[in-house]
């Protein structure tokens, strides 16, 4: 999905209007789409929805969303709705009388109640410069309430191009519903912490001629997820070998293998020095390999797994290996594997300590978290950078691998310089074993679409982030694989 500037968004809207689509129709598409997503988010968990409505088109979007929401709601407006202009005035005209509207010069904490869900429609992409005192008060009170906030288009107080909270404060949303195309500011500076998860409501706009970069949304999953032919058999759906785990970390292997199964691989083989057969899915083909003295893989592991390697189209390796040096010969052998190769976790730590074993090859993917990325940078002479995009691209270029730099808004970078930023995710994923699940999902996709490792990485990261959002607070890595089939079904039906 192309990420564009605010000016480009205005140009696309003007072009759509010139071709016969009214500005109010675009607003209705935005508001109705937002209403569906707010309704899905809210479920039955909230007593009412509080809309914060500004004077411009962002406020108009909020009014349309309130009109179509179908849940108890109240509107706190910064000025009388009779003062609205243009499309926002039409949205006010169509607002049902049953929805209460309260005009507020200022808000206090007593304006929000336990069980409220707040929707921010104060300032949209037209915001620039500093916040007026009234808007600062609305934003401060909303944030201080500690209630969940959904932002429309972008969090109020954030510049749509730079991502900066110009006045030092902005709405801190758990979900941002953006319209038409994502704006560049959603992925920059202060917006990293203010946007929460991202959703996109398409408006039927022309395709932009230029883009700042790309981001991964549900529409990309819908378009690019590999379809399974009705006459397919298991060997046509990809064969994955997960070579993971150790005596110290047996769970990593199980998590990665289960995720590969749930993500749609036709066959998953699991090899580990520390199998716990009572915990394994019956669908797995599992083999215990001999362990080194430290309980990990070793020089003889490749020989023990020769038939598994020959029968696989993708290998996932490194999760839970531990810090033993004894796995180094096995890592070196894996570079000779002719299919797709994903290196995760301790395989990357080992390579960082022994960069001479690295081999640039096709269909190679790495999935470092920031700590592992820092160690790779030190080992391979790559300059670290606080700019995550710049850092991911530098690692990809130096290592010749599609690089998945994990974290909030994970960056996916290809060796040639192409990159995208993931739009899904949740702090719930910041838990042990979550990365092993991502490795398994990505392994399944690499097996199913071996010629497109960059696209496979984009899809896997988005789906993994979506599972974290769905699981929410308290989810653990063991829960994530079981969420995948339902999320895939819903996305492919265009529900998300």
What is this entry, summarized?
The protein has 496 residues and is an alpha/beta fold. It has helices at 6-18, 23-42, 57-69, 86-93, 133-144, 191-194, 218-224, 251-262, 301-304, 306-310, 328-334, 345-353, 370-380, 388-399, 434-448, 453-471, 480-492; strands spanning 2-3, 48-53, 73-77, 101-103, 116-121, 149-152, 175-179, 197-201, 213-216, 239-243, 267-272, 285-288, 314-317, 340-344, 364-367, 402-405, 411-413, 419-422.
Name the descriptors.
496 residues; alpha/beta; Rossmann fold; UDP-N-acetylmuramoyl-L-alanine:D-glutamate ligase; eleven-stranded mixed sheet
Structural write-up:
With 496 residues, the chain is an alpha/beta fold. It folds into 2 domains: 2-211, YjeF N-terminal domain (Rossmann fold, 3-Layer(aba) Sandwich), CATH 3.40.50; 224-492, Ribokinase (UDP-N-acetylmuramoyl-L-alanine:D-glutamate ligase, 3-Layer(aba) Sandwich), CATH 3.40.1190. Helix content is 37%, strand content 16%. It is built from 17 helices and 18 strands. It has helices at residues 6-18, 23-42, 57-69, 86-93, 133-144, 191-194, 218-224, 251-262, 301-304, 306-310, 328-334, 345-353, 370-380, 388-399, 434-448, 453-471, 480-492; strands at 2-3, 48-53, 73-77, 101-103, 116-121, 149-152, 175-179, 197-201, 213-216, 239-243, 267-272, 285-288, 314-317, 340-344, 364-367, 402-405, 411-413, 419-422. The chain has an 11-stranded mixed β-sheet, with helices on both faces. α4 (86-93) links the parallel β3 and β4. The radius of gyration is 24 Å and the shape is elongated. The two termini are 15 Å apart. The mean pLDDT is 96.
